[in-house]
Specification:
single chain, Beta Polymerase, domain 2, Four Helix Bundle (Hemerythrin (Met), subunit A), 6 domains, five-stranded mixed sheet, ATP-binding, ATP binding
Length: about 950
């Protein structure tokens, strides 16, 4: 902020005589400063009167206004409590005059002006509160409190709300405060004795600021934003306030707390209270239901004030009227309410900074943020001029021609030009904000009209089915039914575009039936119509995914959370994002639930990308696997930290988590469980060191169980993954955690061939760097030794026979087990890696190694690889659509279309024939390979 008052604009004196009188008060001023004084006094009787009172102080203050305000605050801080009321009024007078001149001259911009007003308000509240509390301390009415406690308000804190909280006070603003006390500052019954004194102090503080005396007033003070003000005292305990907000708090109170900040008294206690209130203000999900609440408030204001019809300048309310300041504030606040629970960067108090951040994060267009910010600043300047004229707490434009002429002169412009600019701004603000709050109203973005009857007729609408909808929990409230009735035409139109509309409608019925509540989701659809088309795609193609959505509808948040259709960010970026999400939560179980919510959103994202053809099945498999790796990398340290609170840090070098099977290969499907092994190295330490120490073996066994529980336990947000640990040494009979020494000894001396085959796809996912490196180097060295192909292929043939004997039936669409299917192909590829001593690579690489080693023909390798890819694609589609075995007759027309797209087949019949031919070719290739080796 520049500490030199250099005018860049000047008001014109509306009343020339008053202007001349004002200029005569300061004969030593000349040039623009003299013109500023003359124009100001000639437009504002109030400011002219202040000039007369402060004619000795003002000239020096204009030289360095910032320093002058700082000196005034310092002067007030030294005033005795019994004299503070009068001196605060003098201070307010000086501040009001100096800030007005800095504003009118253009030397300060809006943020500097409102910041200075808010800063003085903070100081005034702090001094008034201190003086009021000092009187109670002096009378020994606050048990345990002395003069030293006055610096922290004796446990009392004033929360600045509204414009004061945001640092955006207007020129003649009242101040909204909520006053609370921290019960923990008082012992036992002392709080009951202190309570009346704290109430008296709050009332005395308000009177010091609010009462009009011969010296005027400091700030009109409003304490009615507190919980239930008609029946609660002017200050209340924090615990009682928190209980109120948790049980009865309304949307407008949530919005009010966006701007709340402690401004006086016990600042630390106030900040702790606001942190405790964070879950009330900032909901975990995208809260589109709040938009309707905000719109209802807007309509209530309009009804009460009569703000209907075309915008007319005469008497228009610049704050509450159509297109006014409140519209812009609501627009910013309720976008913040919608998304701020998920995006902490949106939790800003100031209106213009909030608009900028909303644009930065992609919630509103950049152009919208710029337009509303520009008009907000212009509206506030007009509001300030209106208030400066007579120090009136008004927001209304003058209703007569003389008043408009005075306002135009005050703003240094012409009357016609000013009127045109204000009206244009009001209309543009109204158009932009109405489109958000009421998109189907005139002035909003109307959606295409869809006739419900026509849409219903197009899809052979089942009247009995629709009648049943009214009995579903999602439509149990009147508000939910009202929103849904408005959405129904577009929903039905979207469903009618499915390959088989009747199937899509039935799937949508399942989705709707599974919803526990509807207002929030329906409001989201209303605000984001593109979600309706997405829901139509999902219900028309993947009914099972639609059922999942109905039970986890919060995952729709991810679609509109920004960047949903961007490219996959990669494992490291996702680790950072999940880590940030978990750090927000302090409680362990909340961390686990936060992980579940986060994974569902990304899991849903992968599924939608696959469904819409943005990624191929192979890419989907890679992304599912990376997502699981991220969970293990981030959650394993969290599980260990929680376990350590009871049993101490991990003894020795710690434990690493190794992924096996498809997890180790980095290829999962939508419903994969995780094959894991936990390997630990106690490094000779016999037990842990903690409150409840455990023997090292027991420690790591229980720690492993804690990991399995963290991943697979059903919680409020469901499960993360099912976990399978049967691939560990000794299988399900051995300990759940394997010591590093035991793992090495077992692999060196006891492991079966199939266990070494499995190691070709093993990788450490999470754990201490040194131990992880040792494990992976051991694996590499063990496999790099190579194996004679005869014994390996003999063991593969035996394993193949056992699997075939154990499998009772194979359907034509079974992609994993059976002759020539993927489990057999994977065994051959793993054998290629193990025999060649190459520990890296997957199916294609393993088959290529077999060809180069001479025991597999190129044609055989090609048959196996092409079959594997075909079956992999089929399996990915099947797992995306349903948890059951794939049956094309059961997945609907949309599912069949997806299956054909991902396999390149023309018809289901052709695909079935291709599967039969490919698996038979693969089976014959494997037969030939194993028979050749058996004959040698």
């Amino acid at each position: 902020m520049n500490d030199t008052l250099i005018p860049t604009r000047l008001p014109r004196p509306f009343d020339r005589d008053r202007g001349a009188e004002g200029r005569a008060l300061f004969p030593d001023l000349s040039g623009d400063l003299a013109a500023l004084i003359e124009g100001t006094a000639g437009c504002s009787p109030y400011l002219g009167a202040l000039m007369a009172k402060e004619r000795h102080w003002l000239p020096g203050a204009m030289v360095a206004p910032l320093a002058a305000l700082s000196e005034e605050k310092a002067r007030l801080s030294e005033i005795a409590p019994d004299q503070i009321a009068a001196e605060l009024r003098r201070g307010k007078r000086r501040m009001a005059l100096l800030v007005a001149l800095a504003d009118l001259s253009g030397a300060w911009d809006l943020s500097q002006v409102t910041g200075a007003l808010s800063d003085f308000a903070d100081h005034a509240v702090a001094l008034a509160l201190r003086a009021a509390l000092a009187a109670e301390v002096k009378r020994n009415k606050l048990p345990g409190m002395g003069e030293a406690d006055l610096a922290t308000g004796c446990g009392l804190v004033a929360l600045a709300m509204g414009k004061m909280g945001a640092g955006e006070l207007n020129y003649s603003s009242d101040i909204d405060l909520i006053v609370l006390y921290d019960e923990a500052r008082y012992r036992g019954e002392d709080v009951l004795e202190a309570r009346p004194a704290l109430i008296r102090a709050t009332r005395k503080m308000a009177a010091t600021l609010n009462d009009i005396t011969s010296e005027g007033y400091v700030f009109r003070t409003d304490l009615r934003l507190r919980p239930d003000p008609s029946v609660t005292p002017v200050c209340m305990g924090m615990a009682a306030a928190e209980r109120y907000y948790e049980s009865l708090g309304r949307t407008w109170e949530r919005a009010a707390y966006i701007k709340a900040r402690p401004c006086a008294g016990d600042i630390a206690a106030g900040e702790a209270f606001l942190e405790d209130l964070r879950p009330f203000v900032w909901r975990r999900h995208l809260d589109f239901a709040a938009i309707q609440d905000a719109h209802d408030v807007r309509l209530a204001i309009r009804r009460k004030k009569g703000f209907f019809g075309p915008i007319q300048l005469a008497g228009h309310d610049m704050k509450l009227g159509r297109g006014g300041i409140r519209e812009i504030e609501f627009f910013a606040q309720f976008h913040q309410i919608v998304a701020g629970g998920r995006d902490a960067s949106l939790r800003l108090r100031g209106t213009v900074p909030a608009l900028a951040q909303l644009a930065e994060r992609g919630w509103i267009p950049q152009a919208t943020a710029e337009v509303l910010s520009r008009h907000y600043r212009a509206h506030r300047e007009v509001e300030h001029r209106v208030q400066m004229i007579n120090d009136a707490q008004t927001h209304q434009l003058p209703s007569g021609a003389e008043g408009l002429s005075r306002l135009a002169a005050f703003m240094g412009t012409g009357e016609a030009e000013l009127g045109r600019e204000i009206k244009d701004r009001l209309e543009e603000v109204h158009s932009v904000t109405e489109a958000f709050f009421a998109p189907d109203k005139p002035g909003g973005k109307a959606q295409p009209e869809v006739c419900a009857e026509e849409a219903e007729a197009e899809i052979s609408f089942d009247e009995a089915l629709v009648t049943r909808w009214r009995s579903y929990p999602a439509l149990s409230s009147e508000r939910a039914r009202h929103i849904f009735d408005r959405l129904r035409p577009q929903l039905l139109q979207s469903l009618s575009r499915a390959a088989r509309p009747e199937e899509a409608l039935t799937a949508f019925d399942g989705f709707l039936r599974g919803l526990p509540a509807g207002v929030q989701l329906f409001s989201m659809f209303q605000a984001n119509p593109q979600l309706i088309d997405l829901l139509g795609d999902i219900t028309g193609t993947a009914p099972d995914l639609a059922l999942y959505l109905s039970r986890n509808s919060a995952v729709f948040d991810a679609v509109i959370g920004g960047g949903f259709f961007a490219e996959w960010p990669g494992e490291d970026a996702l680790c950072k994002e999940l880590d940030r999400a978990l750090q927000i939560e302090e409680d362990y179980e909340r961390k686990l639930d936060a992980a579940r919510r986060w994974v569902k959103e990304w899991h849903f994202r992968i599924g939608v990308h696959h469904l819409r053809g943005l990624i191929e099945p192979k890419e989907a498999g890679h992304e599912y696997a990376e997502l699981a790796s991220v969970v293990l990398r981030v959650l394993w340290p969290v599980v260990q930290a929680e376990f350590a609170t009871r049993h101490g840090p991990p003894p020795g070098r710690g434990a690493a988590v190794m992924g096996m099977g498809s997890m180790g290969a980095g290829r999962l499907n939508a419903r994969s469980d995780l094959d894991l092994i936990v390997i630990y190295d106690a490094a000779g330490e016999e037990s842990s060191e903690g409150r409840r120490p455990l023997a090292s073996r027991v420690y790591y066994a229980r720690l492993t169980q804690a990991l399995v529980t963290a991943l697979s336990a059903p919680m409020a947000e469901g499960r993360l993954y099912e976990v399978d640990m049967r691939l560990r040494p000794s299988g399900s009979q051995g300990p759940v955690a394997t010591s590093w020494q035991s793992f090495r000894d077992y692999q060196e001396t006891q492991a079966w061939t199939w266990e070494h085959l499995a190691l070709t796809r093993a990788r450490v996912v999470s754990g201490p760097e040194a131990l992880s490196k040792d494990i992976m180097e051991f694996r590499r060295d063990l496999i790099a030794r190579g194996r004679a192909k005869g014994p390996v292929l003999k063991d593969v043939a035996e394993m193949r026979a056992r699997i075939a004997a154990a499998k009772t039936a194979v359907t034509p669409w079974d992609v994993k087990t059976g002759r020539g299917r993927n489990q057999e192909i994977e065994l051959m590829a793993q054998a290629g890696g193990l025999i060649a001593g190459d520990p890296d690579g997957w199916i294609g690489e393993g088959l290529d190694l077999a060809v180069r080693a001479g025991w597999m023909e190129p044609a055989e390798s090609a048959a196996l690889l092409s079959t594997y890819r075909l079956l992999w694609n089929i399996g990915q589609v099947g797992k995306l659509l349903s948890g059951k075995a794939l049956d094309p007759d059961e997945i609907g027309e949309g599912g069949r279309a997806l299956l054909l797209r991902d396999t390149g087949a023309e018809t289901i019949e052709a695909l079935q024939a291709q599967v039969a031919a490919s698996t038979e070719a693969a089976a014959q290739a494997i037969d030939a390979i194993l028979e050749r080796e058996a004959d040698r």
